[in-house]
Design a protein that fits this description.
The complex is a heterodimer of chains A (387) and B (378).
Chain A: H1 3-6, H2 12-29, H3 33-39, H4 44-52, H5 71-84, H6 86-106, H7 109-121, E1 125-129, E2 145-149, E3 152-163, E4 168-176, E5 186-192, E6 198-202, E7 214-225, E8 229-230, H8 236-272, E9 274-275, E10 278-279, H9 284-312, H10 318-343, H11 345-348, H12 353-364, H13 371-384
Parallel strand pairs in A: 1-4
Antiparallel strand pairs in A: 2-3, 3-7, 4-5, 5-8, 6-7, 9-10
Helix pairs in contact in A: 2-5, 5-6, 5-8, 5-9, 6-7, 6-8, 8-9, 8-10, 8-12, 9-10, 10-12, 10-13
Chain B: H1 7-24, H2 28-34, H3 39-47, H4 66-79, H5 81-101, H6 104-116, E1 121-124, E2 140-144, E3 147-158, E4 165-171, E5 182-188, E6 194-199, E7 210-221, E8 225-226, H7 232-268, E9 270-271, E10 274-275, H8 280-309, H9 314-339, H10 350-357, H11 367-376
Parallel strand pairs in B: 1-4
Antiparallel strand pairs in B: 2-3, 3-7, 4-5, 5-8, 6-7, 9-10
Helix pairs in contact in B: 1-4, 4-5, 4-7, 4-8, 5-6, 5-7, 7-8, 7-9, 7-10, 8-9, 9-10, 9-11
Classes of the chains: A alpha+beta (387), B alpha+beta (378).
Amino acid sequence: MTNLVTNFDLTEEQEMIRDMVRRFAEEVVAPGAAHADEHKELNQVAWEGMKELGMTGLPFPEEWGGAGMDQLSYIIAVEELAKVCASTALTYSAHVSLGTWPIFAFGSDELKKRYLPGLCAGEFMGAYGLTEPGAGSDSAGTQTTAVKDGDDYIINGAKCFITNGSFAKSFVITAQTNKELGSKGIMAMVIDRDQPGFTIEPGEEKLGMRGSDWVNLVFQDCRLPQDAVLGPEGEGFATFMKTLEGGRISIGALGLGIAQGALDQAAAFAAEREQFGKPLARHQAVAFKLADMETEVQAARHLVYHAARLKEAGRPYGTESAMAKYYASEVCMRATYEAIQIFGGNGYSREYPVERMYRDAKLCTIGEGTSEVQKIIISRELMKRYA
Amino acid sequence: MDFHLTEDQEMIRDSGREFADRVLRPHAARLDAEEAFPLEAIQEAAESGFLGLTIPEEFGGAGLGSLHAAVLLEELNAADASVGVTISVHMSLICSMLAKHGHQAQKEKYLPRLATGELLGAYCLTEPQAGSDAAAIRTSATKVDGGYRLTGTKAWITTGTHAGLFVVYAVTDPEAKKGYGISTFLVEASSEGLTVGKKEEKLGIRASSTTEVLFEDVFVPEENLVGDLNGGFMIALDTLDGGRIGIGAQSVGIHRACLEASVKYSREREQFGVTIDRFQAIAFKLADMATELDASRLLVHRAAWLRDQGEPSTKACSMAKLYASMACNRAAQDAVQIHGGAGYTKEFPVERYYRDARITEIYEGATDVQRIVISRNL
């Protein structure tokens, strides 16, 4: 297994997934990207296609209805989707990494049986509720409460910015059982869409990722049976943090894909568009921008793939996923920014996809831990070596 | 050296700020969402005397200079950059251009109407194939009896849908060395053969109108030639110097709005038991934003002051626009970042600032064009 960490070649299987998803992305996903953004609706054709291709359960074992593929294959799939439709890539990564993975990794057999086959088949989406209006970067500051009542828990509180909520059946959420215990008092649980006392409200309009659904969740005396609890009782927060470690690799792949997509667009435009009697790409100012973009995108890919390979190999990957997510999302910001600059006035117009990409990109430095949160993780780990 | 604004500059700032608070800020988000031209706001701006700010008093304006304009434009743009660019183009590229380069009859005919807002101006230089390479325009003006006939397509024209007067650059001598065969014309919106093309859908400044403008054998009378025949490109370059002060001021306005929103939010938002302005990661972003804001404003004011003194200001104008626009975008990105998930939503104005800011590095000379101008002037 160790070889997987140092071997930079893709396996045959990974190459196959890449080629399959790339073709699917270009032929099926890309044509609906602008429409999904403009109308703020899911790229439905893309989701249906992902179901058919078996992508919705890609990195999960076949016994649960998954495709049994490795982590890197999944990460490459996110990257390929993000190149043409970031909203679809976000829908997909939130479904797999945040909505499905924690049930697979921490769920009881009962919970797995209830949700995994449907999640893997894409019959419904998975959603993950950590963030609250008052608990963003300080996610341990959750104010949603779970109060024991007989064998059940009574949940009260609210969650916001919950990706895929409109289409989800299972919602993995956190709640505080005992404020005195701080993060140790946080419990993770899986709430079903139909649970009485649980309502789903539409999310705010957003800057980008408009083809990705997000909602707010409200719990009013929502009664949950004991079997809804995910993982050991005092370890809910740890469960969520572990989930985010994986989620961050996929957001890294999201940023990487958007950046690569913007670079592809900008390079093609620079080769074609002439000013001052020659193509833009023959002006040093533009050529060097493209060189920077290419270098940064490749560096980001190394970080993202490395984190995925570590996860696959069963080695620690928390810091590496933080670095991959932080770096790829910042690269994504620079690449989309410069892509617009290379396009000039055209780049500011919604006729070209770089306009959308620049709006989508900003999600990457915020969602699943802001860049600042990643830097907290990276610096803390770093300082352990010097303590 | 005195860094204070004069009394009348302060007056302009205060009335601009009052106007922005009362007329612009309450409607900016809605106009952005609806992509609706802010006609009422522009009319009110005209009534407040803003449209004619730089027009000489004898033609119905306030007779003030570029620095006054920059002070006013910062205030307007801090509230609504769509209104800001509409007024900046009208003021800098049309009114000031005409006041400086037009002849007496042209000024008498058009400036009073531009001052009252009866006519809004649009500036037609860019073409689909001639962006940064502006001298490569192809719109032609052929001499005919009593005037010229114009044919060609102009792109990215601000206020295209609502302009009454178009300043159009066209090739009058195709044989001349590049840049030496272009002339400037005043074309009324009602001219036969002039059509306003499709309205662009944009990342930001969505309430401003941006269109193609098509000229098909449009007759322009001899008396609507501005300045010398074949001297148009020099007028364009000089006019854009002034325009860059306007866009520099726009950048300063958006930048300031980003800073103010971020300071406010970070003092209210608590995470980890304290307001987030107490974290260095946030506080130092704010410190950079504030420092860069002042640097931008000083560059813009210096450029405007030089221009008002009649001193060479080309390099200073480009430096102001280059720096202020880039700083403004850094500020907009940081403002969204400081707001976190909330900043990604339309509940907070930074979402709009992020989109609006992006244009400042593109129009009226993209960033690399400013660098060409600056490096050539070293």
